[in-house]
């Protein structure tokens, strides 16, 4: 559902959002990939799980999640008694879209001797079908705790799964989803940038394909990329993740230069998440005013989805949100379908 915002002309949106936030006893969360004006008014800015955990720890009655649907669902699973609104319910994710619950259930049924390690970027229904949820920061430490002879399905991001498989030396059945944003980075443009700025390290998200990861000096989650960018002695950093995170970098280190790695068209436009971009101040105002669009999940799905989320926190509680999955240790091979031909038939 997309809200109608035409009638809001002339409203002091920032003041109104502040007023509604107080009236509703709401907490406003903004993912690093949100527009700067949304990041700047949020109570917390961060990655999806960190935001959900911070919101759960507050006494707020309402969570306004400026991010995408699977993130708001995670917030609801961790705070079932709070009302969770998402400014635009069409704010989905290509990874979530790639993995419909019925197909995932059928794939699991076809591989009964595998456990499902599932990246947090998926629907609540897919979480409910999973054994352990992972983030990019917790996946390695969790994989390390799983016996070597245990067969594993990893979904829905084939690039993160392929990267982990190479780094950890583990074969996994990879669900063939991708993030359309990280997929769009151009190796040619990255190499041009590196040639122009040979001293600038590259920080990349593991959702990037191998031809980008291969050139990275640092690989990690959004939080990890942010920490690296700020702590690196380099004065210029090349950033291979959604470019709105640069807003936080520039605020924290105004004297450094952060350059977003371009897509194939030579600029960053194709690397901006179109789902994240659906959220606006107007829609946030309406969401707080009407408490809609609201995340509604059945008690059964929430209960079942909470189990693999809690398993992740038990297995990797201290690393969740810290974000560094390190450098690849094995050669890059971008043919995850070769790990199991069955997956490519989807
Ligand atoms: S950046 Fe990629 S993974 Fe994140 S919400 Fe957008 S499409 Fe999904």
Description:
The strands form three sheets. This protein has a four-stranded parallel sheet with strand order 2-1-3-4, sandwiched between helices. It has three domains: 6-91 and 276-296, Rossmann fold (3-Layer(aba) Sandwich); 95-179 and 302-327, NadA-like (Rossmann fold, 3-Layer(aba) Sandwich), CATH 3.40.50.10800; 182-271, Rossmann fold. Helix 1 (13-24) runs parallel beside helix 15 (281-290). It is built from 16 helices and twelve strands. It has 346 residues and is α/β, with parallel strands linked by helices. The model is unreliable at 320-346 (pLDDT under 50). It is 39% helix and 14% strand. The chain has helices at residues 13-24, 36-41, 48-56, 69-78, 94-97, 101-110, 124-128, 139-144, 158-168, 180-183, 187-196, 210-213, 222-231, 246-252, 281-290, 299-316; strands spanning 26-31, 44-46, 62-66, 83-85, 114-119, 132-134, 151-155, 173-174, 202-204, 218-219, 236-240, 257-260. The radius of gyration is 20 Å and the shape is globular. Strand 11, helix 14 and strand 12 form a beta-alpha-beta unit. The site of iron/sulfur cluster has 13 residues, from helix 5 and helix 10.
């Amino acid at each position: 559902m997309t809200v109608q915002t035409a009638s809001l002309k002339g409203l002091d949106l920032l003041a109104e959002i502040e007023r509604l936030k107080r009236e509703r006893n709401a907490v406003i969360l903004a993912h690093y990939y949100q527009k700067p004006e949304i990041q700047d008014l949020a109570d917390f800015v961060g990655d999806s799980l960190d935001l959900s955990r911070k919101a759960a720890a507050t006494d707020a009655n309402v969570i306004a999640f400026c991010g995408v649907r699977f993130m708001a669902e995670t917030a609801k699973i961790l705070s079932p008694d709070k009302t969770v609104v998402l400014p635009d319910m069409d704010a989905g994710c290509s990874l979530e879209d790639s993995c419909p619950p019925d197909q995932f259930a059928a794939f699991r049924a076809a591989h009964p001797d595998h456990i499902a390690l599932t990246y947090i970027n998926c629907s609540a229904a897919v979480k409910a079908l999973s054994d352990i949820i992972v983030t990019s920061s917790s996946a390695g430490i969790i994989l390390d705790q799983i016996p070597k002879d245990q067969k594993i399905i990893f979904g829905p991001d084939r690039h993160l799964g392929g990267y982990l498989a190479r780094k950890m030396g583990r074969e996994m059945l990879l669900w063939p989803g991708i993030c359309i944003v990280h997929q769009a980075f151009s190796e040619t443009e990255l190499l041009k940038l590196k040639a122009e700025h040979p001293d600038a390290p590259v920080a990349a998200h593991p959702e990037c394909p191998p031809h980008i990861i291969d050139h990275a000096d640092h690989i990690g989650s959004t939080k990890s990329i942010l920490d690296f960018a700020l702590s690196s002695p380099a004065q210029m950093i090349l950033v291979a993740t959604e470019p709105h995170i640069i807003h936080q970098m520039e605020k924290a280190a105004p004297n450094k230069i952060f350059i977003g790695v371009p897509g194939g068209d030579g600029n960053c436009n194709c690397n901006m998440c179109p789902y994240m971009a659906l959220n606006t101040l107007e829609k946030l105002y309406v969401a707080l005013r009407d408490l809609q669009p609201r995340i509604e999940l059945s008690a059964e799905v929430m209960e079942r989805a909470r189990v693999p989320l809690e398993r992740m926190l038990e297995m990797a509680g201290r690393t969740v949100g810290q974000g560094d999955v390190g450098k690849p240790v094995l050669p890059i091979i971008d043919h995850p379908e070769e790990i199991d031909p069955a997956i490519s038939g989807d």
